[in-house]
Design a protein that fits this description.
Layout (H helix, E strand, L loop, with lengths): L1 E5 L3 H17 L9 H17 L4 E5 L35 H6 L10 H6 L8 H11 L31 H4 L8 H12 L31 H4 L2 H14 L1 H4 L4 H11 L10 H13 L7 H16 L7 H17 L2 H17 L6 H4 L6 H22 L23 H6 L1 H6 L8 H13 L5 H20 L6 H24 L5 H16 L2 H20 L3 H35 L26 H8 L9 H6 L8 H9 L1
Keywords: DNA-binding, Metal-binding, Nucleus, Transcription, Transcription regulation, Zinc
GO biological process, one term: response to xenobiotic stimulus
Organism: Teratosphaeria nubilosa
Length: about 650
């Protein structure tokens, strides 16, 4: 039983009331901390009584012991004992500081799953530190300076250092990460060397990862005619039509050229189509300049302002096209999470505009049906793969038009990209697939003929995703299927090199070669290791042309994985050597010799053949065989007739 008397002391008095109530609940029985909901209910009732009472009131608060059943004086409900509590806690007993500040659900691990995924600095603050912070923020009156109960933790519950890498990969991976390349890299490295494994991160997701900026410059939203001249705009549009539009093809070229001609007739009048013109020009800059320029950043900022202002009205196909251009630019330059958020918003804009429904059913005859389907296909493609990479859910629109559009121009290869969309959506992490289904998806993916480098890289990206799913099921690809996979990866490396040679900074230029390195290390056979050098060479060429933090990090991480793999192989070889030295000390191991033709083989190449003679003596079926004949007959010797039956039956 504890009581407290309150008097009208203004704001200071009410602060004292709040603090005193906190001290009452803080000094309660230790077991009472197990029921935060009941304790919170008592606090609310106590504050309610105080607010309804007269200026001079005495409040009595009855608190039950942890070992007895008490009664709530306000409601008369029994307070449950530990044995009566049926519902288990849904949250961890402790939460790290980043999760507490962001009000995220924490799993209590070190580092926790949220901090691993979002790369926060995971750390925990002890109860003692929290008390120190509270005492520093609110001075304790002298009459309340009684020692607070100490909650001691066992040494085993103390948080390990932040840099510890002993957490298993499986504990950090979520079901939504099944398709994520970052999760696969982490699990691969943890299987090779947990102590030196790289962090969970999307390496080489694109060439920039948010670093395409101008130092010291803040982008400004301006009129298009203030940023570019008409001649510059025409040049950038030509670049877009030549390099970007054949891959996506969601721009109405006729309307684009028409609006371009009209725009400079009224230079100070801005409309919603300026978002499309700004997006096209920004992508034109991206494919002509390795480094960002101020005009490019202003174009992106201007398009963003127009699209944000249009959010107050009903969206149309022009706004949807502007959003799609923005997301296409972000996919090549921005961080994964920023791209994913914008891709989700883009799909909701498309839904609000009604562009996701079958145009023959919706009755909207003002829009080209094939153009509408192209917008929807590209939007779904970007959102699906971005959600797979970051391990988040994708946007699934209802009553969607699943018909694929035909090619719009002779140089259009967007249909190759759209053909992969149904297969990509079939790999949704929420839909479990067994080995046979994944094998069938792999065979179907590799059966398509892709010609353009960006399309080949997208096909390979899907192939690598299926490989990762098969590895999660502990299935080792082999035989004819492995040969097809390695043929596809070799084709992808050539496609990435072509993009580098032509100055086309597509997002897969570094991403796919890096993921190929990881898959080759996971396959780990002579065929895959033989292709490893080509993959690293392409990554190195990417760094030479696009020298950014993202590309250098990808190359160094790939080199780290190879080095860890090499160390493990060397350790295995050393273990085998030690076994031979221990249990076969008289054996003379053959020295490494350069490869030679079989007819030049002689006894000296094998060292002393005494150990082979002893091996022959131990095998009755080989009695009478002269080992010197093997070495001195230039690869030809007579085999006894009685051996033939033994060999055939062997």
């Amino acid at each position: 039983m504890c009581s407290c008397t309150f008097h009208p002391l203004g704001s200071v008095g009410w602060s004292f009331i709040n603090f005193r109530i906190e001290m009452i609940f803080y000094n309660g029985a230790a077991a009472d901390r197990r029921w935060p909901n009941e304790r919170a209910g008592q606090k609310r009732k106590l504050f309610s009584n105080v607010s309804r009472s007269a200026p001079f009131v005495t409040t009595h608060l009855n608190m039950a012991s942890a070992n007895n059943v008490g009664t709530d004086g306000a409601a008369g409900h029994p307070v449950p004992t530990p044995k009566q509590t049926v519902q288990r806690r849904a949250r961890s007993r402790k939460a790290c500081e980043p999760c507490r500040e962001r009000k995220r659900k924490c799993d209590g691990d070190m580092p926790c799953g949220a901090c691993v995924r979002y790369e926060y600095d995971c750390h925990y603050v002890s109860v003692r530190d929290l008390r120190k912070q509270a005492s520093a923020a609110v001075p304790m009156p002298p009459q309340l300076q009684s020692p607070l109960p100490q909650f001691h933790r066992s040494p085993s519950s103390a948080a390990p250092p932040i840099a510890s890498s002993t957490v298993t990969a499986d504990a950090q991976l979520q079901p939504a990460d099944a398709n994520s390349g970052a999760a696969f890299v982490r699990k691969l490295a943890m299987g090779i060397d947990p102590a030196n494994a790289p962090r969970l991160h999307l390496f080489a997701w694109n060439l920039y990862l948010g670093s395409r900026t101008v130092a010291g410059y803040t982008p400004r939203a301006r009129l298009l005619t203030e940023i570019l001249s008409r001649a510059n705009m025409e040049s950038l549009v030509a670049t877009y039509i030549a390099k970007v539009d054949p891959c996506y093809g969601f721009i109405d070229r006729e309307m684009l050229f028409q609006r371009l001609q009209q725009r400079w007739l009224l230079p100070h009048v801005e409309d919603s189509y300026d978002a499309v013109l700004c997006g096209v020009a920004a992508l034109g800059y991206l494919f002509t300049h390795r480094q960002a320029v101020e005009a490019e950043l202003d174009l992106i900022e201007s398009a963003k302002r127009i699209l944000d202002q249009a959010a107050d009205s009903q969206p149309n196909i022009i706004i949807a096209t502007g959003w799609l251009l923005r997301v296409a630019y972000l996919r090549i330059t921005a961080s994964p999470h920023k791209t994913w958020i914008n891709s989700c918003q883009m799909l909701h804009i498309i839904e609000a505009a009604g562009l996701h429904r079958d145009p023959t059913v919706s009755g909207n005859h003002d829009i080209d049906p094939n153009l509408q389907r192209r917008i929807l296909c590209v939007a779904r493609h970007v959102n699906v793969w971005t959600s797979f990479d970051v391990g988040h859910t994708r946007v699934v629109l209802p009553n969607i038009d699943s018909m694929l559009p035909p090619p719009s121009t002779p140089d259009d290869y967007s249909l190759e990209l759209f053909t992969l969309l149904p297969l990509s959506e079939r790999l949704d992490p929420d839909r479990p697939l067994d080995v046979s289904e994944l094998q069938a998806a792999m065979v179907e993916t590799l059966s398509y003929r892709h010609t353009a480098p960006p399309s080949v890289l997208s096909q390979t990206n899907l192939t690598l995703c299926i490989c990762r799913r098969l590895r999660l099921l502990d299935y080792n690809i082999s035989g004819e299927l492995l040969e097809k996979v390695l043929t596809q990866t070799s084709k992808a490396l050539k496609a990435a090199q072509t993009n580098i040679d032509t100055g086309s900074p597509w997002h897969h230029d570094a991403n796919v070669p890096f993921q190929i390195v990881c898959i080759l290390l996971a396959i780990d056979n002579p065929l895959s290791i033989a292709q490893l050098g080509d993959a690293v060479r392409v990554l190195n060429n990417v760094v030479h042309l696009y020298d950014t933090d993202a590309t250098r990090e990808a190359l160094s991480t790939a080199s780290l994985l190879i080095m860890l793999h090499q160390r493990r192989k060397e350790a295995d070889a050393k273990s085998l050597t030690n076994i031979l030295r221990t249990y076969a000390p008289s054996m003379q191991l053959p020295q490494s010799q350069p490869p030679s033709r079989p007819d030049h083989v002689n006894g000296s190449a094998f060292g002393d053949s005494a150990w082979l003679d002893s091996l022959v003596n131990d095998m009755p079926n080989l009695q009478g065989f002269d080992m010197n004949t093997l070495f001195d007959s230039n690869g030809q010797w007579d085999v006894p007739v009685e051996w033939l039956g033994w060999i055939n039956n062997g």
